């Protein structure tokens, strides 16, 4: 195994390890336990992400792409904005669920009335 990433801390290393694992590359964090043993400052640079030898170049490319990611442009950000039309969507969902609940209650009342009518016969 070879080092694919030198992390600042255990959280940074775990983030990169998860990124690589989610992209089909087996990755391990090594050295994270040293932070608790020797303190935060002394362990800086000792936390690393390791991958299999054959995956090093692909892992480095994924980490490089992740590191050079840019922020979403303002007009594109609207695609991800959940607050737009959320009140309309909420009202629609509430009214649909209320209608379903009313139908279920009506059905149950009808069944009870039929059973009550049959018991009186």
TrEMBL record:
Which residues belong to the signal peptide in this entry? none
Say if the entry is tagged with keyword Protein biosynthesis: no
Report keywords, A-Z.
Answer: Membrane, Transmembrane, Transmembrane helix
Q: Tell me where the transmembrane regions lie.
A: 100-119
This protein's source sits in the domain of life called Bacteria
Q: Where is the DUF2007 domain?
A: 1-67
The protein in question is named DUF2007 domain-containing protein
Q: To which species is this protein native?
A: Kangiella marina
Taxonomic path: Bacteria, Pseudomonadati, Pseudomonadota, Gammaproteobacteria, Kangiellales
């Amino acid at each position: 195994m070879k080092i694919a990433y030198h992390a600042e801390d255990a959280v940074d290393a775990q983030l990169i390890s998860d990124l690589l694992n989610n992209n089909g590359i087996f990755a391990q964090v090594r050295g994270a336990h040293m932070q608790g043993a020797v303190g935060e400052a002394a362990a800086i640079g000792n936390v690393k992400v390791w991958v299999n030898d054959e995956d090093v170049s692909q892992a480095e490319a994924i980490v490089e792409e992740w590191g050079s990611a840019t922020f979403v442009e303002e007009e594109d950000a609207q695609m991800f904005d959940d607050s737009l039309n959320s009140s309309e969507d909420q009202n629609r969902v509430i009214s649909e669920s209320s209608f379903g609940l009313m139908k279920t209650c009506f059905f149950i009342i009808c069944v009870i009335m039929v059973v009550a009518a049959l018991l009186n016969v």
